[in-house]
Design brief:
This protein has 218 residues and is α/β, with parallel strands linked by helices. The protein contains eight helices and eight strands. The chain has helices at 18-39, 51-59, 65-80, 92-101, 114-122, 147-157, 171-179, 206-213; strands spanning 6-9, 42-43, 46-47, 105-109, 135-137, 164-168, 183-187, 201-203.
């Protein structure tokens, strides 16, 4: 089988340790949420929910667009102030750069908002990785556990689903991507304690993904 023409990657648990998101990014936004709500009655022309609603959504890790937009704005301030620096697994940046040089089209699909995705990859310890990606997708494309979302993405990037490899640590997301015809691989990161899937190809890091799928590698 030919190597995939494009790679669509998740972020949390795939390119970035879960601990960074839950122990750094989420607490940073939560600590500043009250001040944000006091200063902003609306976001994007939509009324901001009551503070207690946002706290409850955070506690349940809901993928609410308003909450994600507010978190993204707070993180933007943190990155700009130098208070945040995104953590990326050491194997990710060199492998992504190698794939991009080799002509592989790279995309991101995460439940975090597109602006938040760009902030994370733009302020990584490995430098600005945003030029490597051709497009970013969030839940505006649809829920990550529904096959239709992946169909919408592949139509949007203009590639047959079978030419796109989706990388994620979440089995349910991989199931949905496969149902839409995408190729799949689960990242089983020891640091995150990911449980290996019996239904999908697995890899410990991006270098192993390259080896298994015939992508450019060192």
């Amino acid at each position: 089988m030919l190597p995939p023409a494009a790679v669509l990657t998740d972020i949390e648990g795939t390119t970035t340790p879960i601990a960074f998101v839950h122990r750094v990014l989420f607490p940073y936004a939560r600590a500043r949420l009250a001040a944000f709500c006091a200063a902003h009655a609306q976001v994007g022309g939509v009324a901001v929910p009551p503070l207690e609603v946002l706290y409850a959504q955070m506690d349940r890790d809901e993928k609410d667009p308003m909450l994600k937009a507010i978190q993204g704005m707070l993180w933007e301030e943190g990155y700009a102030a130098g208070e945040l620096k995104a953590e990326i697994y050491a194997d990710v940046a060199p492998t992504l750069r190698r794939w991009a040089r080799g002509g592989v089209r790279l995309y991101v699909y995460s439940s975090g908002s597109v602006p938040a995705q760009k902030l994370l990859f733009g302020h990584s310890g490995a430098g600005d990785l945003t030029p490597l990606f051709q497009a970013y997708f969030d839940t505006k494309a649809g829920p990550k556990r529904e096959a239709a979302s992946y169909g919408a993405i592949t139509r949007g990037i203009g590639l047959p689903a079978g030419e796109v490899l989706f990388l994620s640590d979440m089995e349910a997301e991989l199931d949905a991507a496969r149902a839409a015809g995408l190729r799949t691989c689960q990242l089983v990161r020891a640091q995150d304690g990911t449980q290996a899937s019996a239904r999908h190809e697995t890899a410990a890091d991006f270098a192993e993904v390259a080896q298994k799928f015939g992508l450019p590698r060192a």
